[in-house]
Specification:
Length: 176
């Protein structure tokens, strides 16, 4: 609960939360949510979240779905409000090859719901926004942001509940 409150607090007007490796932002979040400003504690926590041990892929069918999408010629991208650790993290999770592009807010200098990050993903994929569907778990950041960029958007957990369902909705059959 304290983490959520700290995370949702305004972060300096127009300042981006995720600049470079996001260290300044994350240090603020850790200190605000735990009350601990010990540099070693922060560093251990920060380093832990750079590893695959801290993360879990949310859908057991994800790999087979992304293989089916690639085989069907569907281009995919990650669009994320995150820092520059995302690419190495995707590699550590062994899922970086599932995506044709990665648009990270720290690299694009725009965070969701800003349409710029969605437009950058479309540019990297070589598609027009009206040809793209964004699937995200936050109504404001993902759905409104993608739609403001001209993309269709589906809310994870409401419009779709699995990657397999995403594939089926766009007409791609997934086999194990």
């Amino acid at each position: 609960m304290r983490y959520r409150r700290a995370y949702e607090q305004p972060w300096g007007g127009s300042r981006l939360r995720y600049v470079d490796d996001g260290r300044t932002f994350w240090q603020h979040i850790v200190t605000s949510s735990t009350g601990c400003s010990d540099a070693q504690y922060f560093e251990e926590l920060y380093q832990y979240f750079m590893t695959e041990k801290a993360w879990k892929l949310c859908d057991p069918d994800a790999e087979s779905v992304f293989k089916a999408l690639r085989k069907a010629g569907v281009k995919t991208a990650v669009v994320s409000n995150f820092d520059t650790r995302l690419r190495p993290l995707l590699q550590a999770l062994k899922c970086d090859h599932w995506f044709d592009a990665v648009a990270v807010s720290a690299e694009v200098a725009a965070e969701k719901p800003n349409p710029i990050i969605f437009l950058k993903a479309c540019e990297l994929l070589g598609v027009k926004p009206e040809e793209a569907v964004h699937v995200g778990d936050d109504r404001r950041n993902d759905i409104w942001g993608a739609r403001d960029a001209g993309c269709d958007a589906w809310l994870w957990g409401s419009d779709v509940r699995s990657f397999k369902e995403v594939a089926e909705r766009i007409g791609v059959e997934v086999t194990k």
